[in-house]
């Protein structure tokens, strides 16, 4: 067995190697295409920001309070690695003040110092979109349906959408006061780990995963019952849009997303083929107060973040979206010194024919094995005879009898194109 290496990837991170990484490429390409088709452009922003950008967003959340990778840079600035996608996008919006509605997508690593457990990484990757500058509930529908359709296009079927409304900021504030006093009266029934949230962030108690707390809050007041007429209308319009798009959902009054700036619609997709502790595929919501909280103009916004690792785990569990076929069109087996392999790969690739080859002057047998393993349709065999005749042998690796044909080297590209 190989000696264990001196350095390994950090705990709870992973290397994604080929061929698995080809699924990542395919997933990214699919997402980029679907979002571009809906008018979203790529936003590429730094992987770290001033600490305040993230602190402002989630003072009440574990992600920001306990899990953030904070550091002081060499200039003495307090910085942090991005723990989630939205804050950076809103910071960029405030800085550049683009015309609205501003619709962007991103694919970016997120860093959280999580406890080590299955399906939870300290660096995970999110695909997301954010749309700023409109509070039209039809935009909420657009955003949710785009994510539902993305999962659908991967072949996922066991995906459940939950939605909720947090109401307008005023609805939320009044509700939070009611909820806090309701929880205070029942504090001893809550799991001790959730008690500290009652004062700071009582809504987080409602989405606790702990059994004791879940039982205690089953009859807690629900924000959907405390919405103003306008907020209730907006929520109705969102549900109507989802119905019209044939996207099934359930209203989950316990779905409160962590950020303090969420207003109106919140949503989350669960992968039912996964263990429930790690089955959140993606989620998001409206954050109409966030741009202002980060020092910009008051601007409504909505978006989602969806975990790549989780989505691929769900695909594994449902047996869909396998690794795409990355076999080259041809594999060149050169046992005549290698110069033809060197030059033919260049010519073929420039002609748009994918080509791979062996190196190091390996034996015929060993090169044929590589050709076979590559999965390529054609093996181009170059021996001394072929070189002397100015020809190559083209073997059809898919034909059971190894059908093989000699053709002029100069006719190779035409030949392959005619057989494609
Ligand atoms: P959140 O910002 O917590 O709502 O996360 C958005 C999505 O990112 C989740 O639905 C998961 O798919 C994924 N995610 C969050 N944290 C992790 C993690 N530690 N490891 C893997 N995926 C994660």
What do you see in this structure?
The chain is of the alpha+beta class and 420 residues long. It is 38% helix and 21% strand. The chain is built from 17 helices and 16 strands. Strands 1-5-6-11-10-9-7-8 form an eight-stranded mixed beta sheet, with helices on both faces. Strands 13-12-14-15-16 form a five-stranded mixed beta sheet, with helices on both faces. The protein has a three-stranded antiparallel beta sheet with strand order 2-4-3. Helix 5 (137-154) runs parallel beside helix 11 (229-244). The longest helix has 18 residues, at 20-37. Residues 84, 112, 114, 120-121, 124, 126, 280-283, 305-307, 309-310 line the site of adenosine monophosphate.
In brief:
The chain is of the alpha+beta class and 420 residues long. The protein is built from 17 helices and 16 strands.
Oligomeric grouping of the chains: single chain
Q: What is the number of beta strands?
A: 16
Counting helices, strands and paired strands, the structural category is alpha+beta
Q: Radius of gyration in whole Å, from Cα?
A: 28 Å
**Roughly how many Å apart are the termini?**
43 Å
Report the average pLDDT across residues: 94
- Small molecules (ligands, ions, cofactors) in the structure: adenosine monophosphate
